[in-house]
Design brief:
By secondary structure, the chain is mainly β. Helices cover 12% and strands 47% of the residues.
Length: 160
Amino acid sequence: MAQKINLLPNKRRKLAFGFLLVAALFAGCTASVIDSNVEIADRRWTYRNHISTPFEIKDSSKAYNIYFKLRHTADYKYANIFILAHFKDGKKVITKRYQYKLAKNDGEWLGSGSGNVFSYTLPLLTNYHFAHAGKFDVEIEQNMRDNPLLEVSDVGILVE
């Protein structure tokens, strides 16, 4: 006589394991505090056109990463970009100058490309702890010799 095997407990284990796997994947995702993109009119970024991104930090005990986001066309004529970042907390302003390499020595763009547009997510501050919870602002301005800086299509800030 054939012995009956009950597969029901095994199916429950697989279902529970699958549920835990999906839950772990969602728990591992980082939530962005802010992810902004501002289109640069006519792809002409002037000195006066500061890109300001306000955001709120609710938990100052966590570490945050702040990124500069840039999109330019293939006609952008430099292999780098200089920017000034103004970090504001309502009381004081800290300004830092950054230089980012955008192309290899042979002219190949380092950003991810989609047609004629290349995108970058470049670090401003990594593993940064805010001194207090509250409202903050990051303001970005281009700091190149050209005014306007041509072929920059979008600029933004990502805080996660």
